[in-house]
Amino acid sequence: MSARLHFTMEQLKNGTHLLITDVDNVFSRHVPLYGFLEEGYDVYHAFEMRYPDHIYREFGFVICSGHQFLRSSPATIRFFDIIMDQCRGAKCDDQVEYNNVFFHYLKIEWDNMNGTTPDKRIGALRVNTTHPENANLLVESVTGRSSVTNHTIKIWDRDFAWRLAGSSREENGAIPDYCPSLNNWVGMPTKCEALTGGGTKVYTKLAQFEVWDEHCRMGQLLT
């Protein structure tokens, strides 16, 4: 993790814009990355589910360190300087430290919130399901600016950058409570406990991808 962070900082300082994405994310369609540059925000994040738990309980949502777009700008580099300072050591938990910085250091002023925060906004859309890990997670995209680094922020809506748990209650296991729309860009399937995939982490991931393709993507294509 330390190596990835150092590489990211080097590329940002070299003027390279970066899409950071975990290798087990599943892309549903082509989205030109220049569109994010044209939209104008410095940093784009995806919603996480509930980890780290203590930050979720305090702020009502968390961001995902495993999928983000970073514009090479002085403001983004200032933001990443804070990440680098907090995420020390090769075994740093980047998910914890990203959210620690995001909520405790950046002092974000949210757009069109009238002084409130995304989790407190009246009428905010949430995942409507009885699944214990997915229920009530925020759905809609939000934007803002850090008063510390002055970098602008957009969190993609959860349909565009899909991050939810699968269900292990079905007999065949890991069926999502719902699938994203055709607007979906990337899926990050997770928590498919009922799939063993032969007992190894790699084969379990492959089994999860098959469920994603067959249950969600193929179903969308047929409709």
Please provide a written account of the structure.
- The structure is a single chain.
- The chain has 223 residues and is an alpha+beta fold.
- The chain folds into two domains: 2-161, no CATH class; 166-222, no CATH class.
- It is 32% helix and 17% strand.
- The chain contains six helices and eleven strands.
- It has helices at residues 2-13, 34-39, 53-59, 74-86, 94-104, 201-222; strands spanning 18-21, 26-27, 43-47, 63-70, 108-110, 142-146, 152-155, 161-162, 166-167, 175-176, 186-187.
- The strands form three sheets. A six-stranded mixed beta sheet has the order 1-4-3-7-6-5, with helices on one face. It has a three-stranded mixed beta sheet with strand order 2-11-8, with no helix packed on it.
- The longest helix is centred in the last third of the chain and has 22 residues, at 201-222.
- The radius of gyration is 18 Å and the shape is globular.
Give me a quick take on this structure:
With 223 residues, this protein is an alpha+beta fold.
Annotate the secondary structure layout.
Layout: H1 2-13, E1 18-21, E2 26-27, H2 34-39, E3 43-47, H3 53-59, E4 63-70, H4 74-86, H5 94-104, E5 108-110, E6 142-146, E7 152-155, E8 161-162, E9 166-167, E10 175-176, E11 186-187, H6 201-222
Parallel strand pairs: 3-7, 8-11
Antiparallel strand pairs: 1-4, 2-11, 3-4, 5-6, 6-7, 9-10
